[in-house]
Specification:
By secondary structure, the chain is of the alpha/beta class. The protein has a single domain, classed as TIM Barrel (Alpha-Beta Barrel). Helix 2 packs parallel to helix 3. The longest helix is centred in the last third of the chain and has 17 residues. The relative contact order is 0.13. The mean pLDDT is 96. Pfam families: HpcH_HpaI. Keywords: Lyase, Metal-binding. InterPro entries: Aldolase/citrate-lyase_domain, HpcH-HpaI_aldolase, Pyrv/PenolPyrv_kinase-like_dom, Pyrv_kinase-like_dom_sf.
Length: 261
């Protein structure tokens, strides 16, 4: 009998020697996912909230990442439209749900992600998540209940105030702090004392509940060290478009600095 499949994402989030590292994917090119895997990231976050990607593209990204040993999280645009059901059947190991401000919203997310009796996810074991029908249905159901990671995104003053209660919801596995939207929500600059107090409150709430907590992070050693010092345990470093744009701009700047003798 084969060993039960284990979540690569949960394994990365549980690592104690350093933060788990991911990056957002906004481009539809499968080669982007391949390059990210070769670079050594632990996971990708396929961004369906802030990109024009469709479900079919996301499914192909998940398949490429899975084949290369990289875990896929999908940031869905919301709970409407059956996104969560179809993304999980496509084989994603995690769902990031933006703009979770209340316990009720977190509970609705859990219901979308989990099977009965925790939730309302439909059974579709003939999908990639069930190895196209070759996986025993009991194992398909077990993986969905025990291995899939649900991470609400806390990105408002209200969400920060309710972070402890959200973290305590059964079926919530991690918290992700959206500092850009939170800063805009409360009208305070990132890095200022008010924002630091809010984010530290969310970090404390996550840790008190025994949950990993992450944020969008920079790509330098200094940026990662700063995030770790603040208490973050997993980081989403930049995104594919910005990584490429930054490298391209640096290449052009270097090239333009040289003239003919």
């Amino acid at each position: 009998m084969s060993e039960p499949r284990r979540s690569l994402l949960r394994a990365a989030l549980a690592r104690t020697e350093g933060p788990a590292l991911g990056t957002f994917v906004k481009l539809p090119s499968q080669e982007t996912v391949e390059l990210i895997a070769i670079a050594g990231f632990d996971f990708i976050v396929i961004d369906l909230e802030h990109s024009p990607m469709d479900l079919e593209t996301a499914s192909r990204h998940i398949g490429v990442a899975r084949a290369l040993g990289v875990s896929s999280v999908v940031r869905v645009p919301g709970l409407a439209g059956g996104w969560v059901q179809r993304i999980l059947d496509a084989g994603a190991e995690g769902i990031m749900l933006p703009h979770v401000d209340t316990v009720e919203q977190a509970e609705a997310g859990v219901r979308a992600v989990r099977f009965e009796p925790w939730g309302l996810r439909g059974v579709g074991s003939t999908s990639r998540a069930g190895d196209w029908g070759l996986m025993p249905q009991t194992e398909y159901l077990r993986f969905g209940q025990e291995e899939v990671v649900f991470m609400p995104q806390i990105e408002s003053g209200e969400g920060a105030a309710n972070a402890a209660a959200i973290a305590a919801v059964r079926g919530v596995d991690a918290l992700f702090i959206g500092t850009n939207d939170m800063s805009n929500s409360v009208g305070k600059p990132q890095g200022g004392p008010e924002m630091n107090e809010l984010t530290q409150g969310v970090i404390r709430a996550a840790k008190a509940a025994g949950l990993p907590v992450g944020n969008p992070a920079g790509v330098t050693r200094e940026a990662v060290q700063s995030a770790v010092d603040q208490g973050y345990t997993f980081l989403v470093q930049s995104n594919d478009t910005t990584l490429f744009a930054t490298a391209a701009a640096a290449a052009v700047k270097a090239g333009r600095s040289v003239g003919f003798a």
